[in-house]
Design a protein that fits this description.
single chain, alpha+beta, 2 domains, five-stranded antiparallel sheet
């Protein structure tokens, strides 16, 4: 506890104010900052813990990845299937459909969820399912305004598509055929966990937050009216 208190009290990286003040000094030595020193010690210890067995395991993984890639190329060639391009940080575009799915007999998942489900899943003892009071009040008032779905008059929260996604896709914008933002990709369904090996179009789905719900939360809960005014909302 004393060590933690020392780092937080003396390090310049604990508050923006401390950092800005230090940056104004031309002779400030960052190397002596307690947070930097702690990081160096951790990195040194991690390096020591990397035993020969650990390094051998890394080499084994790398070798088998090459073998897997070679097999994947051969499979694609034999089955006339395209391979994914290298992900080199350039812009990537793909396409898909808003689509529900049937994971097994007797189950049929719709393509969207609503705020009703948000309240149904509320669990004060589970951090992932805590519904803030401000959000709960806004949902119960049903003051969805222009963000309500025109057909159902409900507030849609998420929708699923058959886009093939992977780790790192979270936050990717989802456009309709007119080029308008309709949502943001943020997850995949349980059946999509094997997607990095092969894509199963009948089962794998990309989960997207409906942009109308984002705007609803921004305006009705977050009080971000100024940002809302900057947007063209149809």
């Amino acid at each position: 506890a004393k060590f933690t208190e020392n780092v937080f009290s003396k390090s310049i990286f604990t508050t923006p104010k401390k950092l800005r003040k230090a940056l104004k000094k031309s002779n400030f030595n960052f190397a002596n900052d307690p947070a930097i020193l702690f990081n160096k010690d951790v990195q040194k210890k991690m390096s020591e813990l990397r035993t020969d067995e650990y390094n051998k395991a890394l080499d084994n993984i790398a070798e088998n990845k090459r073998l897997y890639t070679a097999g994947l190329k051969e499979w694609a060639k034999e089955n006339n299937k395209p391979l994914y391009p290298d992900a080199n940080f350039t812009m990537r575009l793909t396409y898909g459909q808003v689509l529900g799915y049937k994971p097994f007999d007797g189950a049929n998942y719709d393509f969207h969820t609503t705020t009703k489900g948000v309240l149904e899943k509320e669990d004060a003892d589970n951090p992932e399912f805590v519904v803030p009071e401000a959000l709960k009040d806004a949902i119960l008032k049903k003051d969805f305004g222009r963000y309500a779905d025109k057909k159902t008059e409900n507030m849609h929260v998420t929708f699923i598509t058959n886009n093939d996604i992977t780790g790192g896709n979270s936050g990717s914008p989802v456009f309709n055929a007119k080029g308008e933002v309709i949502g943001l990709a943020f997850d995949g369904n349980w059946e999509a966990m094997s997607g990095d090996i092969i894509f199963e179009p009948n089962l794998q789905r990309c989960i997207n937050v409906d942009i109308r719900y984002v705007l609803f939360v921004m305006e009705k809960v977050g009080g971000a009216e100024r940002l809302i005014k900057e947007l063209t909302i149809k």
